[in-house]
Amino acid sequence: MRIAFFAPHKPVDHPVPSGDLMIARGLRDFLIDSGHRVEIASRERLWKIIESPGRWPSVFFEYGRILERMEKFRPDLWITYHSYHKSPDLYGPEISQRLGIPYVIYQGVFATKYRRNFRTWPGYMANKKALLYSAHVFANKEIDFCNLSRIIIPEKLSRTYPGINTDDFSFCPHSRKDVRSQLGLGKTTTLISVAMLREDVKAESITDLIQAFGTAAGDTPDMRLLIAGEGEARARLEKLAEKVAGEKIVFLGSIPRKELFRYYSAADVFAFPGINEALGMVYLEAQCAGLPVVAYSTRGPSEAVAHMETGLLSPQGDIQALAENITEIVRNTELRERMKKAAPKRIKRIFDLRSNLAQVEKQLLKLI
After folding, report:
1. CB neighbours (10 Å) of residue 90?
2. What is the dihedral of CA 90, 95, 97, 99, to 10 degrees?
3. 3-state secondary structure of 309
4. Rounded to whole angstroms, what are the CA distances from 298 to 74, 127, 205, 274, 293?
5. pLDDT at 218
């Protein structure tokens, strides 16, 4: 297949890492590795485009450039990754119609609450138009699948799952020994958290984690918490960590994704509350390496983690419950070992990237 690929929210080569970016790149790379030719239709970012009239002329001129490029490329179909009310796809439906090719949305999102506000209504309608024009829509979250079912007929809607290359995050005993020696962890039970330390819900989650860890460490002193990530909130969080738990919390800074498996392997538990987390690829990565998870029972962690099977989840904002779950999973070695074995099996069964995207590829081939 010759595929036109567009990500209106954030181009696939955007320099700032995120879970959405990893999913988009995973889809693109899979299609290329499978022998298909993928052409980036545009790198124009449409995030908040509706409320930015100063950018509208650039959208108009980019439309002409895309059409010219795609007429030369002659794609068999168009795939848009992640269209929603803040970043609606304003190009794909029109250009697909001009070229006479199927139009597909991967990770479609639909929520009627945005039609009730005059500020969000235009974006809501633009996104709805793209969804209704689609030859097929893939939803990789349960809530999105349910919402999309209200406007998309079953034949044009598929429930798929995000995923990771499981070989990239398998447990590595050599790395465990090496990293633990390097950090002087000895036999200490070690938790690890991975997040961008920016001043938003990410830093809010780490703040809750530090406070919960401080409470748990008071009852179970032989514990350490490693925090991997970088951002403007780091200095503030380091001060809080020192105040709450002294030297028991260690900030590792930014760790390249290809090196994360080494640090997951060195730890015993993965902990990240996940406030407003859409899914959280780090939950998948950590479980693949055999780490039980401690998190909040919000939408993202609840989809990625099986409560009492591969981790312990508690209500958002309940720091005491979060601390109790940390204590339980650290002290209860039998529970931890059971989850350690179950977690990789579940990830490989449900969240294996190549297996999941192979199903997407089959549907795309049907469309052409």
Report:
1. 23
2. -170
3. coil
4. 43, 25, 12, 7, 13
5. 87
| Per-residue model confidence as pLDDT tens digits over 229-281 | 999 999 999 999 999 999 999 999 999 999 999 999 999 999 999 999 888 89
Tokens 């009492």 correspond to what residue?
A: 308
Exposed e or buried b for every residue in 288-303, given b needs 16+ CB within 10 A?
A: bbbbbbbbbbbbbbbb
Q: How far apart are CA 298 and CA 319, in angstroms?
A: 14
Lookup result for tokens 């939950």: 283
The CB density around residue 55, as the number of other CB atoms within 10 Å, is: 15
- Provide the residue type at 76 as one letter: D
Q: Residue 157: count other Cβ atoms within 10 Å of its Cβ.
A: 18
Q: Is 201 exposed, middle or buried (0-12, 13-18, 19+ CB in 10 A)?
A: middle
CB atoms within 10 A of CB 104: 24
Q: What is the pTM of this model?
A: 0.91
d(CA 162, CA 18): 14
DSSP assignment string, 81-142: E--BTTB--SSHHHHHHHHT--EEEES----GGGGSSTTTHHHHHHHHHHHHH-SEEEE-SH
Residue whose token pair is 């192979």: 358
SS3 call for 157: strand
Q: CA-CA distance, 70 to 77, in Å (whole number)?
A: 10
